[in-house]
Amino acid sequence: MTMGATDASGVTAGTGGTGVATGTGACEGSGGGGSVGGRAPGPVLSVAGLKVTFVRRDRELPVVKGVSLEIAPGEAYGLVGESGCGKTTLALALMRYLPANGRVDAGSVRIDGEDVFSLPEERLRELRGTKLAMVYQDPASALNPSMKVGEQIAEVYRFHEGLSRAAALAAARDSLERVAMPDPDATLERYPFQLSGGQQQRVVIAMALAGDPRLLVLDEPTTGLDATVEAEVLDLIEELRGKVDAAILLISHNLGLVARLCERVGVMYAGRIVEQGPARELFTDPRHPYTMGLLRCLPRFGVRKDEVSLVPIPGSVPPLGSTMPGCVYASRCRLVRPVCTRREPDLFAVPGDLAAKGRAAAEGEPPAPTAQSPHDAEPVGDAARHTRCYVPDEVPAMRVEEEHVHKVQARAARADDVLAAAGVSKAFRDGGRRLVAVDDVTIDVVAGETFGLVGESGSGKTTLANVIAGLYAADGGEVRFLGQRLPPRAAERDRDVLRAIQMVFQNPDSTLNPSWSVRRILSRSAARLAGCRGAARRERVEELARKVHFEPRYLENKPAELSGGQKQRIAIARAFAGSPTLVVCDEPASALDVSVQATILNLLADLQAEQNVSYIFISHDLAVVRYLSDRIGVMYLGWLMEIGDAEDVFRPPHCPYTEALVSAIPTLDFDHRRPRIPLRGAIPSLSDPPTGCRFHTRCHRFLGDLCRREAPPWREAGEGHRYRCHISPNELRELQLAELGPLPGR
Amino acid sequence: MRRLVVRRLLLMVPTLLVVSVLIFLMAEIVPGDVGRSILGPYASPEQVAALNHKLGADRPLVERYVRWLGGFVTGDWGESPILQAPVTRVTFESLVNSLLLAAIALVVIVPTSIVLGVLAALRRDSLLDRFISVTSLSLTVIPEFVSGVILLVLFAVVLPWFPVTASAPPGADLLTRIYHLILPAVPLMFVEMGYIARMARAGTLEVLDMPYVRTAVLKGLPQRRVVTRHVLRNGLLSTVTVVGAQVGWLVGGLVVVEKLFNYPGIGRLMAQAATLHDVKVLEATVLVVAAIYMLSNLTADVVVAALSPRVRLGG
Question: For A435-453, what is each residue's pLDDT tens digit?
Fold first, then answer.
C-alpha cells in the first residue's frame, strides 16, 4: 500500500488563533493496514487513504482524493454531498467495480479484514453478492427487464450457495417475504416492468440481502421515487436494520433521509470527506462551511419564504478531477483565509475534544488519526467529530449571517382571481380505456400568490397545469383568466393571454432550442412575448439575463454548454420575457442539486416580489412547496383532495391523504419526528379508480362501507380551507392531534 | 401476442393486393409487349397484334387485372407464354433454388457474425475489436458482384477448386448442390457479415452499459452467466430484427449474383419476366418474394417479442 505520504507531515497551526488546528498529524492512510483485525468486533468496512483516478483523453482526473472511513457491524454511515463529488465512485470502488478508465491509485478497502483490491478474481466474485451488496438508484433500470424477478433473486442463491433451481426459487420467495412484498408467490413470476417503483426497489433490496451481506451499500435508494414510495422504502430499510447486522453505507443527497437512517455521517466534497461525525451533532451543529452551506440551501420543513431565505452556496462543484493546492472548498467558502488556498487542512478533531488533544500533546504525538478508526479511538461523542477546516469555530455563526427574507407583497383579496379553474376535467384514451386524469377540479389563484400543487405521480398535477396553460384542452369545466373565459387550446388564445401565462418545466432542455445561442433564445422571446424590436430587444435580453443573475458573458453559448442551473435560469428568463401574470412551474428545481435548487427557488421568490406574478408551483418535495407556497392544493388520482392556506393544509385537521404525505417528509428536526403513516399498497390504476372515496383503498382512517360506497363531501375546516373526507373537521382534528402528540411550537 | 400475429398476417392481404396492382401498372408503363417479346424484333406489327390478341394482352388493363387476380387467388396462376410452362412450377422451382442459396449463406453468416460482434463488444477497444470491426466493415462495402467476380476468377478459373456455375447438374444430390453454391454464397456473407456483426456489437455494447448488467456483476455471478442471461438476451434483440429484414433480400434480391453464377434463382426469373413482359410470372415472383419478406420480418418480431416480455405482455 502506497498512500498519501504527503499527508502525513505535521500540520502548521491554523490561522485565526483559534487553537483548533494544533498539529494533528491526521492522515488517512498512514498505516491503514495492520490496525484492523484482532479486535473483537472490528469494523466491517475499512477504507484507508483511497484514491481513485479517471483517465480521460490522456488526462488524469482524481475523483476520490484520499478517503478513509470505517463502518462497524450494524452501523449505518451516511455519505452526503452534491453530485459530482465522488460519492458513487467511492461506492463502486468499494465493490472494485470501476469503469475501464478508472483506477485505484492508492489506499485500501478491507471487508472484514480482507483487502478487496488484492483479491483474486474468483474470490472477489464470491464476495460480491454475499459479503458485499448494493442497492441502486432507479430500481427500474437496475433489474433485468427480460427476466422474472424471482429468477433474478434466485441467481444469488444458485450461484453462491449452489442451491438447485427450485430451492433457490423457494429461497427467493422467502427473501421477498422478508422485505414485506405483498403476495410474494405472484411476484416471483413477474417481470420488473409489472411492478411499481416501490416494489421494484423491494426486489432489489431482497436481492441485496439474499447473500446475507456484511456491507450493504445503498446508493441514492429513494431518489426518483415518489415521496410516499420513498417513505415506504425508508421504512423497510429502517425495519431491516433491526434484523440485519450488516454495516450500511447510505449515499444520498437527501440530508433528511440520511439524518433519519444513519448514526454517523460523512460529508463529501470534491473527492474529499470534509466533515464527519454523529448524524445529530453534524446536522445540528455543523463545523465545516460546506456542511453548513448544504443545510442553509434546504428549506426546513415548516419555514416560509417570508421568514427565512435560502442561502445557496456560491459557485459550483469544481469540475471532475480538478486539483487545487489548498482546501478543496476554498473557492466557494465564505470563511476563506489565505492559508486555506495554500495548504489543505487535515481532518481535525472538532474542539470540545480538548482532553484528547491535551493528552496527545502531553505524550508528544499527534492525536489519534481521525477517520482511520473513530471506533478504536477511546473518546466518544465529540471526539468522533472531525472537520477538514482551519476555522471550524466560525462555522456556527454562518447560520445567522446575511439572512435576508423575501419581501412578500400583501396578498390580494380572494375575490381578485388571476386564475379560476372551475370543475376542470380531462380524460385520456389508452387503447379502449378511458383514464380520467383530472376529475372536476376547482382552484383559484390571486395576484402575487404561489399556489402549490402536490400529490404522487399520476395524481393529475401536471395534467391540470397543462390544461391551464392550454397545452391540453379540458373535457369539462372552464378556465377563467382575469375574469375572462379562456379558450381551451393555446392555439385559440390571444397573444396577450399566451404572454401572460407561461410555463417553466422540470427539464429546461425541453424548452430551449439546443442549436440556438442563449441570446437568440431570449431575443426571440423578447420579440414574441414583449414585442421588442431592434435596440429595445437587445436591451431587454440583457435585462432579462440580469434579472435571473445570468452572467452576460455566457449569452453567446448554446444550452448544451451551460450547467443545469444556468439552463433553468434561461428557461425562467424566457418565461418572464413578456412580464407574465401567471407562471406554471412544473418541478422547476427537482432535478437540481440543493445549492442550485436554492438559487432557483430564491430567484422565483424574488421575481414574484418584484413583479407580483402568480405561480402555480408543482413539486413532489413538500418542504419546498411549503416554503414557497401561500396556498396549496393536494391531488390524488385526479381528484383535488384538499385546498387551503399552506399552513392549514399541513396541520390538522387535514385530509388523511395529506396527513400521510406530510408524515412521509424526511426531516432534519431530530426532536420532533412525526410518526410515519404508511400508505398501504400501490396507487390504483386510473383506468379503474376505486369507488366511493378514491383514497379509500390506502387510507389509514378508512371507515368501512361508507368510504367504499360514497364519494366524500367537501368539508369546511376554516377560512378557504376545504378537504374531502367522510370524517368531520372536529373529529379529524382530535384524531390527528392525538397521534401527533404535543406539537412543537414554531 | 397471438392477436398481433393474426393482425399482421391479415395485414399482408391488402399489402400484397397493392403490390400486385403496382406491378401490373408498372409492366404496362414499360415499353413493348409480350407478343413482341416472343416473336422478336423482326415480326410484323400485325403478327404481334395477332399474338397479343390470342394471349389476351390487348384487353383493357382492368379486365386483364381482374382476370389474372381471379385466377391467382383461386390457385390458377396460369401459364407463362414465354417459358411455355405453368407459372406455379417455374416460380416455385426457382424459389427453392433461391431459398437454398439464402439458407447456406444465413447458416454461416448469422452465428459467425453474432459471435464476432459480441466478442468485439466484450473486448471493446482491444486489438481483436479493431480487427473485427475493420475487417467486417471493409468486406461489407465491397458490392457482392465485385467480390463475386473476383472470387469466380480466383477460385473457379485460376484455381479450379469450385465450379464456375452455381447450378449442379440435374439429378445431383444435395451435397453436390451445396458444393456448387459455396462460391456464390461467399459474397453474400461478406455483405451481410459486417452489417450483422456491427449490429450485434452495438447492441451488446449498449446493454453492457446498462445498470442491470452492473447489478448482475455485483451479484457475483460468473461471467458466463452475466453474458448469456443478462447481456445477450437483451443485446441481440436489434440484431434479430436486422436478420429478419435481410432474409427478404437474400431470397429475392440476388439478381446480379444469380446472373453472375448462372443460377436459376427467383431474382433472375423476376428480372427476366420484367424485361420480357411476362406479367404472370412477374406477379407471381414478386408476390412470393414480398410474402417472404413480410413473413421473415414478422418472424423476427415474434422472436423479439418472445425474448422481451415487455413487448410480449404489453406495458
Answer: 889 999 999 999 989 999 9
Alpha-carbon A257 to chain mean position: 8
Domain ranges of chain A: 5-131+213-399, 142-209, 417-632, 651-740
User: A141: closest CA among B310, B30, B269?
Assistant: B310
CATH homologous superfamily of B88-313: MetI-like (1.10.3720.10)
Is A265 an interface residue toward B (CB < 8 Å)? no
- Flag if B211 and A133 touch (Cβ within 8 Å): no
- Rounded to an integer, the average pLDDT of B146-154 is 88
Q: How many helices (H) and strands (E) does chain B have?
A: 16, 2
CB contact under 8 A, A146 and B219: no
Please tell me if the domain spanning A5-131+213-399 has the same topology as the one spanning A417-632.
yes
Q: Which of A155, A193, A216, A430 best tests the B interface by mutation, with the highest count of B CBs <10 A? A: A155
A504 grid coordinates: 417553466
Cβ-based neighbour number of residue B247 at 10 Å: 20
Asked if the bond preceding A653 is cis, omega within 30° of 0, the reply is yes
Calpha distance A495→A452 (Å, rounded)? 26
Could you tell me if B306 lies within 8 Å of chain A, comparing CB atoms? no
- Of residues A95, A138, A156, nearest to B211 (C-beta): A138
- Among A130, A159, A194, beta carbon nearest to B315: A194
| For chain B, domain boundaries | 2-84, 88-313
Give the mutation candidate from A57, A101, A144 for the B interface (greatest B CB count, under 10 A): A144
Q: Which residue has the cell 383568466?
A: A481
Q: How far is A129 from chain B (nearest CA, A)?
A: 4
Q: Is B46 exposed, middle or buried (0-12, 13-18, 19+ CB in 10 A)?
A: exposed
Say whether residue A134 is in contact with chain B using an 8 A CB cutoff.
Answer: yes
Q: Selecting from 1.10.510.10, 3.40.50.300, 1.10.3720.10, 3.30.1490.100, what CATH number does the domain A5-131+213-399 have?
A: 3.40.50.300
Closest CA to B38 of B49, B22, B27, B24: B49
Question: How many C-beta atoms surround the C-beta of residue B62 within 10 A?
Answer: 9
Shortest Cα distance, chain B CAs vs residue A278, angstroms: 30
Residues of B in Cβ contact (< 8 Å) with A136: 211, 214-215
Q: Are A150 and A169 in contact (CB under 8 A)?
A: yes
Say whether residue A215 is in contact with chain B using an 8 A CB cutoff: no
Cβ atoms of residues A473 and A488 within 8 Å: yes
Handedness of CA A290, A294, A300, A305 (dihedral sign): positive
ipTM score of complex: 0.80
Residue-wise over B89-106: b if at least 16 C-beta within 10 A, else e?
Answer: ebbbebbebbbbbbbbbb
Fold designation for A417-632: Rossmann fold (3.40.50)
Q: Which three cell numbers stand for residue B83?
A: 417459358
Q: Which residue is it, cell 379508480?
A: A689
Q: Does the structure show a pLDDT above 80 at A99?
A: yes
Nearest Cα residue in chain B from A189: B309
pLDDT digits (tens, 9 = 90+) for B66-113: 888 888 888 888 888 888 889 889 999 999 989 988 888 888 889 999
A95 contacts in B (CB within 8 Å)? Answer: 218
